[in-house]
Predict the structure.
Amino acid sequence: MKRLALISCALLAACGFGADDSQQAATATESGPPPPPPYQMRAELPPGDRLKAGKSGEDLFSNRCGSCHLAGGMGTNLLTVQRIKAGEPPETGLLTNRTDLTADYIKTVVRQGKMAMPRISRVEATEAELDAIATYLAKANQ
Ligand code: HEC
């Protein structure tokens, strides 16, 4: 019984430290977190089996391609320069604003790479994930 009482005391003490931590967290929030970078990706992946098709292409695109292809990413920046040189509107530097990309073309670029874009393996994006991403990006064509 004495031992149990000792353990309870230890637990209560631990809770006491917990309270201190939350006070510190509150102070940090008051000064405000730094603004997120424009290319910040979604933190969460869609749940479920990675090999299963039918997951959100939008989430997967943001997660697997977003560091380069969301606003401010190096893929977006390079493609914007290319698009302007080709006489196309600058906003088509974002893949999500393109209407000329087919799913097959997107999949080929992803697996083979293109110029400054490294190829992306089946470990980084499974076939099912790439299908969902390509369908999402090519939606304007279908
Ligand atoms: C490491 C950065 C990076 C990642 C990650 C990346 N890309 Fe790219 N991507 C680029 C760059 C840079 C280019 C421009 C290549 C060039 O110089 O022509 C590009 C070009 C492309 C193009 C060709 C566009 C055109 O006009 O021909 C497609 C399609 C594409 N990316 C799709 C994707 C998809 C889908 C993903 C995610 C599965 C992805 N990329 C991930 C950097 C990246």
